Amino acid sequence: MAWFNTSTGMKVGPICCSLLIFLVLIPVTGRSQDKNITRGNQQWVQYYNQTKLAEKWSLLVDGGYRWKDDLIHRSQYLVRASGRYNLNDRLSVAAGFAHLGTYTDIEITSKEFRPYQEIVFTHGEVLGLNHRFRVEQRFVQATVNHDQQFDRFNWRFRYFLGISIPLLSSSKHPSRNLKLQVGDEIFINAGEDIIYNIFDQNRLLVGPAFQLNESLTFTLTYNGNFSALNLPSEYTFNHILWLGVRHKMDLVKSKQQ
Question: Could you give all domains of the chain from N- to C-terminal order, each with its CATH number?
Answer without folding.
Answer: 3-256 (2.40.160.20)
